[in-house]
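Provenance

Sequences were taken from public entries as deposited. Structures were produced by running a predictor on each sequence independently, with no templates supplied. The record for Probable molybdenum cofactor guanylyltransferase from Algoriphagus aquaeductus is shown for reference.
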Amino acid sequence: MDGLSAFILAGGKSSRMGAEKGLIPFRGKPLIQHLIATLAELEIKPVIIGHHPEYHQFEISVIGDLIPDKGPMGGIFTALSHNVSSHALILSCDSPLIQSGTLKKLITMKSNSIVVGQREERINPFPGIYPTSILPQVKRCLEENKLKLQAFILEQAHQIIPLDQISSQPEAEFTNFNFPSDLLPWEEHKENK
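Predicted structure for Probable molybdenum cofactor guanylyltransferase:
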């Protein structure tokens, strides 16, 4: 898509999952592979930001965090530093139920500000559209060790979209899997993916 590159964050420590999160099997394939397939429906070839050598099996670019151990802010910094487009669609590998139609709606809202979703009172930073122009602000936050992503988003020009405006199933599509037990209830719900 014009002016947009996609990045999947998979560089976390995965301590709660007990294994490399993006490679955990879900519905017959690794979590991250669901997102790669969804992006392929939009003709977008993502870059994985992660360090595990098994990510190379997906035959797409894999890059490590430029500044390790900085959480999602470090991932955003790495994505924007490698981005050759005006905007980055940034996703997290632990949300495999996102649908291509939902991403397409989010992408159409691309502007000069950060575009993220919100469910109830909580901002959902991923998936989100991040303009490459905010790279200096991200770098400054990392230098000052200000790693709270929600606070960062609110300090920038931003657009917050209620998730039910872009998704008919926000509870499913925007579920993050953090523990192995989180996967079980969704393993059977095939209609979501």
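The chain has one domain: 4-186.
The first helix runs from residue 31 to 41.
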